[in-house]
Every structure is written in C-alpha cells, then in structure tokens.
Amino acid sequence: MNERDELARLLPPPVEHDLPPGRHRLLKEFVMTEIQHRPRRRLPRPAVLAAVLTAAVAGAVALPALLGGAPPASAYTVAGNPDGTITIKIYEARDAKGLQADLRERGFNVIVDYIPAGKRCSPQPRSATWVPGVRLARPQSAEEEDAGAGFRIDPSVVRPGQTAVLEFLIGQETGGHYLSAGISDRVSAGPVAECVLVDKPGGVRD
Amino acid sequence: MRARLRDGDQAAFEQLYDESARTVYNHAFRLIGDWSAAEDVVSLTFLEAWRLRHRIDADGGSLRPWVLGIATNVARNLRRAARRHQAALARLPRGEAEPDFSEELVQRMVDAEKVAAARAAFGTLRRPEQDVIALCVWAGLDYAATAEALGIPVGTVKSRLSRARRKLAGEPAAPRRQVAGDRDPAVRLPRRNGR
C-alpha cells in the first residue's frame, strides 16, 4: 500500500460539499464583474451587483497592520489624487470622527463610523434612501499598495444633497493587526440616522 | 486553455471557474475548517488567479494544480490576500442574502462530527504536511501535480506524506534527513501568492 492509500485509510473521509445553492453563481458573477472592472478606472458600477447591494456589509478584509517601528502620528492618512479620488489608509481603529472631519474639509459630505466586533449600528437601516448601485470604494494604485494597504474613495459619485456613509467593521486586535470584517461604502439620498452601537445578536462574524 | 487565459480571455477564465470552484471550496474548507471563510477563499483565489494569469506556462496539462496552489496560499495567507483585494471584497455579496439556508445548515450539522474527527487528526500535523495531504490525498492530485501546486520538489512531497503517515499511525519519527527545500524557517517569510 502506498503512502497516499495508507493516509487515506488513517484519516476520516473528507466532507465534500457543493457551494450552497446560488452561491456558485453569485460568487462567479462577483469574480467576473471584478476582473472586468479592475483594469480600467472610473467605470460605472456593473449592474450585476445591484441585486446584492441589500447585503449591508462586506467580507473579511484586513486593515493595515502596525509592523513595528515608529507608529504614525495619526490613526489614518488621507491624500488627494489628481483624478479627484481620495486615498485613505487606516492604521488604527480609532478617531473615526477625525477622519470624517478631514474628509469633510475636502468638501466631501461623508459620515464615518467604526463598528467593533459584536456590535452593530442602530437603527437599521440607517437610511431609507440608499442610492442603488453606487459604491464609494475602489482599489488603490499598485504604487500606493506598495506603501501599505488602503483604498480609494471617489467623491464624484456623491451628488449634491446626498451623503456618503463609510462604515468599518473592526475585528479583534491581534499582535498589532486590526482585522476589519468589512467596509460598507454606500451613498444615501436622504437623511442618515446616527450610529448608536448596540450588541449584535448572534456571533461576531458577519 | 492556458494560452487563452494568459491572453486574458474572460470566457476561458469563466470556464476555469466553473471547473474549479467546487474543488477550491472543499480544499479551502479542509485547510481552515470554516465554510464561510472557504467562500472567501474561492473569491480571492480566482481574483488572484486573474492577477497572476501571465505566470501560466504556455505548456502543460490541467490547470488544477496551479489553481489549488493559489488556493493553498490564499487560505494560508487569508489576511494578506484579503488586504490585496480589500476594495473588491467590500463589494462581495454575503451569504446572509441567501434565503434557503436551513436545509444546508442541517446537512452541515450532520457532517460536523466527521469534520471534527478529521480535523482532530489533521490538526496534529504541521502545516506543510497538512497542505500535501489536502492536495495529494483529498483533492486527488498526484505527487508531481502536488509538487507543482506547492512549488516544491516531488521528493519533498513524498517525504512530507511519509512523515504525516508515521505521525498518524503513531510510529516514532524516522531520523530527520534534510531534503532540499524541506526546511521551514521558524519565522516564516512571506510567500508570494501563486508563487
């Protein structure tokens, strides 16, 4: 008997699943949309994602880690780009309102909230008038990526009278890493409720 | 297929997704033990595959080893892969949107015992040994394909399998011989995704 057969005998048979109903198709649409979207800038959001925008917030992403050395003076940095977008890098999950104020100084009508693990904003939904198909965040350039994780936001998608809402779900801090469970980057056409943090029913993971 | 992918043919990439998504999903679950995270690995693996498509050799057989190699790296460096595709993931539709979840959940609870047993044994092994088992024993790659997926020599695949078998069978470890490329540094250097 060779090593493979012997190992297969020693280990219980693996569980095998299909992706849950609908997920195969949905994830494929997501991947195909992303690869079409990626090479070019300033494309309108593909319509295929409109159907899923009701899902409030997003997947596992990591905020930049503090990798030793001198910590940055600020919990975040904000930099304008020639194309009108703004590059945001978040180093520590604090001072959401400072980030909000800095963005507003640039004429960008935005609300920023950090949401710790196990919490959620109340009331939900915070707006009855989310603008369908409009999202703020996009990847930063490769050069920016080399200087640390972050993302760009595009104020031009926010029309006069509308409000951008950036919510960051903040996971546990482990070894200087703030693992974010997601970003919500929507635009509201009408009033946005203040985020009052309340315990989230169920687990920590979204 | 290889040439088409290298040239950025999206229809070929869609075909690769259809052929490989289930394999990647199950492979990821076996490595990390979380179905929801395994879905993230599926998305990130294909975003990485697209990004790294120019590295595909024009010659060669099935792309399964290449895709599973990327999936292994993504699952092992999930945080880093997620950071690279941070903005994309912000747009990733979540499972909660799925209405008919309960039946699936019941089936998964039935499987939970099997999973726990497998992971108890699997968890006693080192990660490099886990990776070769997941690829070579469970995903069905042969020695050469496993070596290709992980970017290691075939001899290293065999020695890791052998070491894993001895551990699982409760045999004393054989004297350690150094095989080229078979050292894991105490502090792992970041590996490039997809090599």
Model description:
The complex is a heterodimer of chains A (206) and B (195). Chain A is α+β, with helices and mostly antiparallel strands. Chain A is 18% helix and 27% strand. Chain A contains 4 helices and 10 strands. Chain A is elongated, with a radius of gyration of 20 Å. In chain B, helix 2 (10-32) crosses helix 4 (64-76). Residues 95-110 and 174-195 of chain B have low confidence and may be disordered. Chain B contains 10 helices and no strands. Chain B is 64% helix and 0% strand. With 195 residues, chain B is mainly alpha-helical. Chains A and B meet through helix 1, helix 2, strand 1, strand 6 and strand 9 of A and helix 2, helix 3, helix 5, helix 6 and helix 7 of B.
Please name the defining characteristics of this protein.
heterodimer; A: 206 residues; alpha+beta; 10 strands; B: 195 residues; mainly alpha; 0% strand; disordered C terminus
Per DSSP E runs of 2 or more residues, the count of β-strands of chain A stands at 10
Kindly provide the radius of gyration of chain A, computed on alpha-carbon positions and rounded to a whole number of angstroms: 20 Å
Q: Which structural class fits the helix and strand makeup of chain A? A: alpha+beta
Structural class, from secondary structure content of chain B? mainly alpha
The number of helical elements of chain B comes to 10
> What is the count of β-strands of chain B?
0
Subunit organisation of the chains: heterodimer
Percent range of helical residues of chain B:
55-70%
Query: Roughly what is the average pLDDT of chain A, rounded to an integer?
Result: 71
Shape of chain B: globular
Reading side by side through the largest sheet of chain A, how are the strands ordered?
Answer: 1-9-8-4
Low-confidence stretches of chain B: 95-110, 174-195
Please give the largest β-sheet of chain B: none
Which range best describes the helical content of chain A: under 10%, 10-25%, 25-40%, 40-55%, 55-70% or over 70%?
10-25%
Radius of gyration of chain B: 18 Å
* Percentage of residues in strands of chain A: 25-35%
Give the amount of beta strand of chain B, in percent: under 5%
Poorly predicted regions of chain A are 39-71, 174-179
The interface involving the most residues is between:
A-B, 59 and 64 residues
